[in-house]
Design a protein that fits this description.
Layout lengths: L3 H9 L7 H15 L12 H12 L4 H9 L2 H4 L4 H8 L1 H14 L7 H17 L2 H15 L6 H21 L3 H15 L1 H35 L5 E6 L2 H11 L10 E7 L2 H14 L8 E2 L12 E7 L3 E9 H9 L6 H4 L6 H5 L3 H13 L5 H13 L2 E5 L5 E5 L4 H8 L1 H5 L1 E6 L2 E3 L11 E5 L16 H33 L13 H4 L4 H10 L4 H8 L21 E6 L4 E5 L21 E2 L2 E4 L2 E3 L10 E6 L3 E6 L15 E6 L9 E10 L4 H11 L3 E10 L3 E10 L2 H13 L3 E6 L3
Parallel strand pairs: 2-5, 15-17
Antiparallel strand pairs: 1-2, 3-4, 4-5, 6-7, 8-9, 8-10, 11-12, 11-18, 13-14, 16-17, 16-18, 19-21, 19-22, 20-21
Helix pairs in contact: 1-2, 2-4, 3-4, 3-9, 4-7, 4-9, 6-7, 7-9, 8-18, 8-19, 9-11, 10-11, 11-12, 12-13, 19-22, 22-24, 22-25
Length: 746
């Protein structure tokens, strides 16, 4: 265990004027508070905060951060209090220790919603003072290094959390060394067998190529020296996790990898970087498409370097990274490498100085998204997306540089500039050519967004954008659009009820009854009616309390979630209820495979609206739409039904609906198919056998046409869902007695 004077000496190496008294006091205080507490391994607990402090000294951090590392577990695990730490070490250190204590209480390996909310708290704490992140990452790194003592289940859970949250967070803050070590340690416990195979392969490869690597280092150093450039050249080997990820992504074997080794060239000035590049490119041929200049255009985590790959030096591909010493330090330690951490005074808030760094700017933008997200789960999803993305760099027509995640689209580009630009985007020109909005952008593209004031972002955009900001904005716009639908539908329903009651409906009348309806404004009232949360008759009774309801109510009260019912939920929240025992032929009703009970109640609407399927039927998994016919109720069609064309001129009749099926129910749904079978003995029996074998029902069957060679049949099936139906269709197609089978109107 590191002694007191050794800790002071470690800090003195990079900060000669270190406040040794402060470090000594923190060392003694933490050691006394932890006393004889022990870790699961049996080591004294104090060894843990001491190792965390040692990791931070390797980053050359100020003594205040080292003190926080020594004290970070005292409030949580000992008798120490915040007020005591404030008194002994100052309020700044007390605030940081308390922030880490709160983070320690978070169980990020938990249910999704809880994990998401805890991630919010973690990032907010980090945004207030980035030193919280530095101590937390050092704390996690030491815990991962000593994870062997945990049981297997806990090891795996902690490793997954590290891979999901802490490693990518370190990467986005530019702390590449810590990121890579956390990934390696997590990889070892998440995929132990794969880790072992890749690690052994890398070890064998290094032994075989050690002499070659040394030779290349010397040759490159002499080459640059001959041109008057003092350069340090060192070889580097890809980490096991990086190799494994590439093997999986490209579906290649270990032996097929060609860039496991690379070389880093460290020089004194930026001018030397480009001189080295010129020497390399004029000496050996360059591999096309493998050149990147991150000095001219730094990454968002402040990473700066030139990357190039050449063919030479024993006719092998050689990857080179060229950078200055300062760039190299930032590449390894990220935000921790900035000199503000070395010379900062204890009363100066770190956050005010870090505002200009790209890495910290990303963190601030992420935290800003906290207030825009509508649910913790959304935030977790989008933050993970942001953490794991590489980048492309594009330009506006005026030359503004926009950094985007890899695979970003023009829609992502538009939302990155401003939410209003994304919401009004209708088209794009890429490098002067009109292109689809789903085009994946490439480095150097000039992107011009075409806008329209009447545009509303389609919900389908969410399926191909990649930035969290774009997804959140599209979801928000979609919710607003649906709310407008709720409002329009609710207004229509309320007007209908008032008309039946012989009353005149005026929106302003609702203002006086808002408290009675427990709604904040008129729009909220009507949207609630549209969603089914409020009855239109409740609105009528609120305005006209003396009105007598003369409707005839059903004796059976249907509750949402009753078993034995099929639910179709309108986007407005209405649930259409159809009883399980009603799936019988209706004779004259014209509905295939289901009897429709007239006057079925709809949750949230007190009137009676009949609901039925179109003749071709619909099954869960189909995209469906409802058509409201006055006096006839609502008919559910699959979206591809040709019959919908006759309603194109009546958009007011269209109702968006979606499936809401109780997974505990055993319901079948109607689907009409056309079968052309070989006209041979046993063909009908074969069709029936395949359908029965797949646990489906034939509700009705008719012979449409019979010829010497074939028979055409219309078969009305009852199936569980679209997968069930597709399986039956596939197996019928495979039968030798069936020529073709297709779904009607599909």
């Amino acid at each position: 265990m590191m002694r007191q004077y050794e800790l002071v000496e470690r800090v003195q190496r990079y900060k000669p004027d270190v406040n040794a008294a402060l470090l000594n006091k923190a060392y003694v205080y933490a050691m006394r508070k932890h006393g004889m507490q022990k870790r699961i391994s049996g080591d004294l607990y104090f060894s843990h905060p001491l190792e965390v402090a040692a990791i931070l000294t390797d980053m050359h951090l100020d003594e205040a951060t080292i003190v926080v590392a020594l004290l970070h577990d005292t409030i949580e695990d000992t008798s120490a209090t915040r007020s005591e730490i404030d008194h002994l070490f100052g309020k700044e250190i007390g605030t940081l220790v308390e922030g880490l204590t709160k983070i320690k209480k978070l169980d990020l390996v938990s249910k999704k919603a809880v994990q998401a909310e805890n991630l919010r708290k973690l990032l907010i704490a980090i945004s207030q003072d980035v030193r919280v992140l530095l101590v937390k990452l050092a704390d996690r790194l030491h815990n991962m290094r000593t994870l062997d003592v945990m049981d297997e289940e806990k090891r795996c859970r902690i490793a997954e959390e590290t891979m999901d949250i802490y490693a990518p967070l370190a990467g986005r803050m530019g702390m590449q060394d810590i990121c890579e070590e956390l990934e390696e340690l997590a990889f070892r416990y998440i995929h132990p067998e794969a880790w072992r195979v890749v690690k052994n392969g890398l070890s064998d490869l290094l032994k075989r190529n050690l002499n070659l690597l040394t030779t290349i280092e010397k040759d490159l150093t002499l080459l640059f020296s001959g041109h008057g450039i003092a350069a340090q050249v060192r070889s580097r080997q890809k980490k096991a996790w990086s190799v494994f990820r590439k093997m999986e992504a490209k579906s290649i074997s270990f032996e097929q990898l060609s860039d496991i080794f690379g070389f880093r060239v460290i020089v004194e000035t930026i001018e030397d970087c480009y001189r080295v590049l010129g020497i390399i490119h004029t000496t050996w041929p360059v591999v096309p498409g493998r050149f990147k200049d991150y000095i001219s255009i730094p990454k968002q985590n402040d990473y700066r370097s030139i990357h190039t790959t050449i063919v030479g030096l024993s006719r092998q591909r050689v990857e080179l990274q060229i950078r200055t010493r300062e760039m190299d330090e930032i590449a390894e330690y990220g935000v921790a490498a900035h000199s503000i951490y070395k010379d900062i005074g204890s009363d100066l808030p770190v956050i005010s100085i870090l505002n200009e760094t790209n890495a910290y700017a990303w963190l601030r933008q992420t935290v800003q998204a906290l207030s825009e997200g509508d649910s913790p789960e959304e935030f977790l999803e989008q933050t993970r997306l942001e953490l794991f993305r590489d980048q492309v760099f594009c330009f506006t027509p005026k030359g503004r540089l926009i950094a985007l995640p890899n695979q970003a689209t023009p829609i992502d580009f538009a939302y990155t500039i401003h939410t209003d630009i994304g919401d009004s985007c209708i088209g794009v020109k890429i490098n002067g050519c009109i292109m689809p909005l789903m085009t994946r952008l490439k480095n150097g593209d000039e992107v011009e967004i075409i806008r329209s004031k009447v545009q509303v972002p389609p919900a389908v955009w969410e399926s191909f954008v990649v930035t969290g900001k774009a997804r959140l904005a599209i979801r928000r716009a979609t919710r607003l659009a649906i709310r407008r639908q709720y409002f329009a539908l609710g207004e229509s329903l309320v007007e209908g009820v008032f008309e039946k009651a012989g009353k005149k409906f005026l929106k302003n009348d609702l203002n006086s009854v808002l408290p009675r309806l427990a709604r904040k404004d008129v729009e909220d009232v009507l949207a609630s009616v549209g969603r089914g949360e409020l009855s239109s008759y409740d609105v009528l009774k609120a305005i006209y309390p003396d009105y007598k309801d003369t409707r005839v109510l059903h004796k059976t009260h249907i509750k949402a979630g009753d078993k034995g019912w099929f639910n179709i939920r309108n986007v407005s929240g209405m649930i259409f209820k159809i009883p399980k025992n009603s799936r019988k032929d209706t004779g004259s009703s014209g509905i295939v495979g289901m009897r429709v009970n007239r006057g079925l109640p709809i949750r949230g609407v007190s009137g009676d609206i009949p609901v039925r399927f179109s003749p071709e039927g619909a099954v869960p998994g189909d995209r469906i739409v409802g058509i409201h016919l006055p006096g006839a109720g609502i008919i559910i069609y699959p979206i591809q039904s040709p019959a919908l064309a006759e309603y194109d001129a009546h958009p007011e009749r269209w109702i968006d609906v979606r499936w809401d099926i109780d997974t505990e129910m055993s319901e079948r749904f109607p689907a009409r198919t056309r079968v052309i079978a070989i006209n041979a003995p046993g063909s009908l029996a074969e069709v029936a056998r395949i359908i029965a074998k797949n646990d489906a029902n034939i509700h009705s069957l008719s012979m449409v046409r019979t010829a010497p060679d074939f028979t055409e049949m219309i078969v009305d099936l009852q199936v569980w869902d679209i997968k069930h139906l597709n399986r039956i269709i596939f197996q019928l197609k495979e039968s030798k007695l069936v020529s073709t089978i297709s779904r009607m109107n599909a």
